[in-house]
Amino acid sequence: MAGTFIDALPAVSAAQLTDVFPVDQLPGPITYQESNAQLLALFEANITITDSNFTGTLSPTHGGTGINNGSSTLTLGGNLTTSGAFNSVFTMTAATNVTFPTSGTLATTSSIPSLPLSLANGGTGAGLTASAGSIVYSGASALALTAAGTSGQLLSSAGTGTPSWTTATYPSTTTINQVLYSSSSNVVGGITAADNGVMISGTTGIPSWLANSGTPGYVLTANSSAPASWQAISASGAITTIDGDSGSVTPSSGTITISGGTTGLTTSGTSATLNLTGTLNLAGGGTNHALTASAGGIVWSDASKLNILAGTSVAGQLLLSGNAATPNWSTSTYPSTNAANTLLYASSANTMAALATATTAVLTTSSSVPTWAATLSLALGGTGASLTGSAGGIFYINVGSVGAILAGTGTANKALLSGSNAAPSWSAYAFPSTLMSSGLMYANSSTSLTTLSPTTDAVLTSDGSGNPSWKAVTDGQVIIGSSIGIPAAATITASTGITITNGHNTITIATNGADHWVDQSSSPVTMTTNTGYTSDDASSLVTFTLPTTSAIGDFVEIVGKGSGLWKIAQAAGQQIQISPNSTTSGATGYLASVNQYDAVKLRCDTANTIWSVVSQQSTGLTVN
């Protein structure tokens, strides 16, 4: 490329990191190549970017903000996304100012309370709707608003309930010394204050201040059908007369009059002086007696006057009644003070003392001196022990000759059982509270007894659980046991050739020498072992089925009579042998007559299944 200028070279269509650049490095005419990495290292080592040599804004695609942030503020033109160990996306939906703390965590999602904000977080605990005039109050867990009141109403507490506005209204302002009253229903008004007045009410009950009369000596006087008013002392209702013993005096005419009475005193005087002489009698509140004082004396009354009993020089003596005569002082002395619950006793002749108190004790004597004992012995009618009561308990004498209480039982009707020389006890069983005549008592559980009602002419049996019951029996019945149930009362069933006669307490069993025989005219019938049958249907076949249960040696017998003939049917597994033939085994096999008077007798060879013909009268029975 010698002789070619750099600016004459063609442009690179797409720059790559492996590109090299021709460099004319002075001094010298030699042209060199230089890589991008060398070029970038040269810029980083020799170029410093400062505010003075950098203009414009760096776009977000080149790692900038895309906006001029001034001297100290970083402004985002849109949403902020961070990447790295903790990826975060901050999406701004409107103008937002966020102030970050100088240290610590701004907030975590777990620390942001839910709405509505609770009381504990400084909120109301409820979504409230503003209402003009409402008052905020607290419920059990949230704030709430009262209804709006009307002008003048007061807010009244309801304890722990919702406060409410009073129905009555009150003035919004008052003056000093003003008295409030209900001027009308549920309306409280004020009465203007007045100096030196008296509050009265008129005929309609409305209170008001009655102004001072201004005249000394006037008194407030009631008036008929009108409010009270100030009146002069000489006016209607004033005091005009005073009653005394005898005679009278009027110190000022028209003001006070004194007249005689029955007090024992005598009054006299002039308009300026009142004289009082004599002895005040008992009825007048006096003594009716000239008395002489005595230190510590007692005033007492005889039939007409009061007297003084001279005081005693001995402390602690008591005043004793003299019946209708003079009282006197006791010879015995008593304590001047006593503690609560103490008892008095004569500690020596004519000297009463206090017995110290004791808790939970009984009063006894020791060498004739009273004393408290913790327990009262059996010899003195006590229990000899400190006992605790028990509802329904039983008192008994325990070992050591002291009393004890057997605690009551929570189960009614238990019996008290002797413990020999030890403590008694309650029975495990509860007995019936009532018994019936001839009833039988038995344990119906592990803890109680009951009564089995009586039954006449009966035998006692029990079921599989051991519960007893009566089985009534009649003539000839006997009790027959069972391995699977309760014994039953039944009569004995007679078999072939046997007759049974039942009577009062008797059973007569006899033989009649004849087989049991049945005249059979209906069909079908299952035969009974050891029984003979006469087939006696004149028009229809009579079907006899072999007995379901049979023992070796049992027999059945059929004699034909009716023209309808007869047939012996079999059950599953059964068969009839008639030498040299036999019927088909099972329900399809049978033996049948061919003539009206054919007869046959069979005997069991194998229990329940195989029968053999031991005799027959026929020209030839049908064997199938």
Mean pLDDT: 79
Distance between the termini: 134 Å
Sheet of most strands: 7 strands, mixed
Strand tally is: 50
| CATH class bucket of the domain at 515-623 | Mainly Beta
Class from helix and strand fractions: mainly beta
Report the CATH superfamily of the domain at 515-623: gp9
CATH topology of the domain at 515-623: Jelly Rolls
Beta-strand percentage?
A: 35-45%
What's the short version?
This protein is mainly beta and 624 residues long. The strands form 21 sheets. Strands 39-41-43-48-49-45-46 form a 7-stranded mixed beta sheet, with no helix packed on it. Strands 40-42-44-47-50 form a 5-stranded mixed beta sheet, with no helix packed on it. It has a two-stranded antiparallel sheet with strand order 1-2.
Explain how this protein is built.
With 624 residues, the protein is an all-beta fold. Among the domains are: 455-514, no CATH class; 515-623, Sandwich (Jelly Rolls). 2% of the residues lie in helices and 38% in strands. It contains one helix and 50 strands. The strands form 21 sheets. A seven-stranded mixed sheet has the order 39-41-43-48-49-45-46, with no helix packed on it. It has a five-stranded mixed sheet with strand order 40-42-44-47-50, with no helix packed on it. It has a two-stranded antiparallel ribbon with strand order 1-2. The radius of gyration is 66 Å and the shape is flat. Residues 235-241 have low confidence and may be disordered.
Task: Set down the secondary structure blueprint.
Layout (H helix, E strand, L loop, with lengths): L19 E5 L6 E5 H11 L33 E3 L5 E3 L45 E3 L4 E3 L7 E4 L7 E6 L9 E6 L2 E5 L6 E4 L5 E4 L8 E5 L2 E6 L10 E2 L14 E2 L5 E5 L4 E5 L19 E4 L4 E4 L7 E6 L2 E9 L9 E6 L2 E5 L6 E5 L2 E5 L20 E5 L3 E5 L7 E6 L2 E9 L9 E4 L5 E4 L5 E5 L5 E5 L5 E3 L7 E3 L7 E6 L2 E6 L4 E5 L4 E2 L4 E5 L6 E4 L9 E6 L5 E4 L5 E4 L2 E2 L7 E3 L6 E8 L3 E8 L4 E2 L1
